[in-house]
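Fold these two proteins, one after the other.
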Amino acid sequence: GKTMRAAAAQLGWSYVDKFSYQSIPGAASLHLFAHGTRHRVAHMLSGMRDGTQMSAFDHQFKRPFLNAYFLHTVVMAASSGVGLPSFVLRTTSFLANSGVKPSNQITFPSHPKFSSEFVLMGTDESALRHLFSDAVIEYCETHPGLCMENANGLLFVFRQGVLAPPQSLTFYLDEANTLLRMFASGLSGVPMAPPPLPPPITS
């Protein structure tokens, strides 16, 4: 808590130690909270990052009937401006460990690694096939444990079993913004411009 509060101060963001997950818009319908019991959220930082309203918080829940707890840091970013369809992306191991069966699963035969390591669920298959471009799929394949969900104009990003170190929090925030840009690129069909080159080294 102390280190997360310090990270919020460094970013110039607000900080809340504890709050109810039900205060998150559309929480009751989110896959993130629909499975498991004893959901707890804490250490929420909120602010603007590169023009996007974002929050980060720690989330814990328990698998029913088993003494198994799940704990991870979630980044929540406003996605309403991008117009993303609703979807849930989970690693196959996370779903299996949490006892959840896939539904409305979409696979990519041209990307067998992605389809074996991740479960993509959603009802608008056509839109999701555009959304999950080759660039997005390659990003997922090279970032093991990545889980996402988009609903109610919010994108949720976390890694299976990973609590983000406060000193590395900006990486996770910037990653969410990068994913939003890649999603927008996939929907528009316009390739995302490569990141700018670093300034030349001067002696």
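Now the second one:
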Amino acid sequence: MTSIRGLSIDSTPIPITDGSFQVNRNLITEEGATIPGEPQIYGGVYNVNGTFSAAYRPQTLNTFIENGILGKTGGGVSETFSFYEFTMGNEFDKSWTFASCALTSCEISMQSGQYSKCDFEWIGTYKKPTDITIGAADYTKEPTLFYNAYIGDLKCKGITFRIDRPIGTEDYILGSEYSQSLIQTDNLTIGGTINLGNKEYAMMEDVLYTTDEANWNNDDPKDNVTYIGDLTVKFRNPTGTTDLCTIYLDEIHVQELDVSVTGMQRFEKSVQWKAKTTTTDGITFTTAT
């Protein structure tokens, strides 16, 4: 099997819309005190990172989101996460494979007038001497379309989910230019944006008012409530007959409200939110088989 243009994860071809990778050799240069230039240049630590985007096919991508970023299935998040080999191939049957790669973020978005999309970011440890070939990607799994999406009881123009697991490569030792391991460097976060419909105002009120208005300048106890409940989003197949994926968020909090208008156009209203993340709470994916 010859390599073709595209991307594979652990030899599984992924139907992507675009992708990229960058390698940084972090050069070490000598600072010359007697000449105006850099008299010696050496290789430094090795860094590789990349991105790819795809139509959101839950049956193909959810396993990488759950195992690769969340670290577990069935809801909540885990301390551990999966490692993969990422391969990218071009149109001239040439491929490049990177070892010990980890997914650092994923953003799922659904906008009116479009199919749902998924954007990933990843980092790796080193380039493998032997590259994996890429087979043909499977396009038979269906993406999801905006008019067969269900967002709780909310009417909105668009919604995004972003999962971030900050991972660093700073585990370098003397005697090697490669990071010895990839280590989580901060808390895993889940958040996103909801673009509200014309007549949707209830969620705006949750951001505008803190419930402490009557006690704004005295010694009464304050609540400063930001919790607005749970959220269920269903992604159905193009004919609307099958729930390809249901995403459930246990506990979300409003974070920011943006309102704008230009001329006589409609008011644009977007709410940014964050989700509580624990070993049992956060986000749950239910994927059709």
